[in-house]
């Protein structure tokens, strides 16, 4: 697992710079600097989401920090990237396999048997004899 923490919002891959916790009993949301370790139930947010996050109506919002600086790159980031590449290169890649296709058909008798002939009938078009004579 990478030590780089990202924003918890859907489809946001920005690095986290703030942590938000909730006090349900006090109906309060607290937004502060990024916690040193991942806390259960806390939300790690990127700079954009930390500035735009809101709490439910009737709750209080406490912002311990109002300006969030991007986390500076650290040697740990580079080491984590190197470790991830190293681990990926150790994996054995299975050889490609042809696609398996199964064709299932119900068992029916396909032997030629007596064919029934279609029956055709003439249907009156609904014209009376007087109408056809005048046309």
Please, could you describe this protein's structure?
This protein is α+β, with helices and mostly antiparallel strands and 135 residues long. 21% of the residues lie in helices and 14% in strands. The protein has helices spanning 47-52, 75-90, 129-134; strands spanning 18-23, 28-33, 43-45, 60-63. Strands 3-1-2-4 form a 4-stranded mixed sheet. Strand 1 (18-23) and strand 2 form a beta hairpin. The longest helix has 16 residues, at 75-90. The chain is elongated. 10% of the residues are buried. The model has no long low-confidence stretch (mean pLDDT 80).
Identify the notable features of this structure and list them briefly.
alpha+beta; elongated; 4-stranded mixed beta sheet; 135 residues; 3 helices
Write the layout of secondary structure elements.
Elements: E1 18-23, E2 28-33, E3 43-45, H1 47-52, E4 60-63, H2 75-90, H3 129-134
Parallel strand pairs: 2-4
Antiparallel strand pairs: 1-2, 1-3
Strand and helix order: EEEHEHH
Q: Radius of gyration, Cα only, in angstroms?
A: 36 Å
Strand order of the largest sheet: 3-1-2-4
Structural class determined from secondary elements = alpha+beta
What profile does the largest beta sheet have? 4 strands, mixed
Overall shape: elongated
């Amino acid at each position: 697992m990478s030590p780089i923490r990202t924003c918890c919002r859907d489809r946001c891959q920005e690095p986290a710079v703030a942590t938000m916790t909730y006090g349900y009993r006090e109906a309060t949301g607290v937004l502060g600097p990024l916690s040193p370790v991942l806390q259960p139930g806390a939300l790690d947010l990127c700079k954009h989401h930390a500035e735009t996050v809101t709490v439910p109506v009737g709750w209080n919002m406490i912002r311990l920090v109002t300006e969030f600086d991007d986390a500076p790159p650290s040697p740990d980031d580079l080491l984590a990237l190197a470790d991830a590449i190293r681990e990926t290169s150790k994996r054995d890649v299975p050889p490609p396999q042809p696609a398996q296709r199964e064709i299932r058909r119900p068992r029916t008798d396909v032997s030629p048997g007596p064919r029934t002939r279609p029956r055709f009938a003439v249907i009156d078009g609904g014209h009376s004899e007087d109408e056809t004579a005048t046309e």
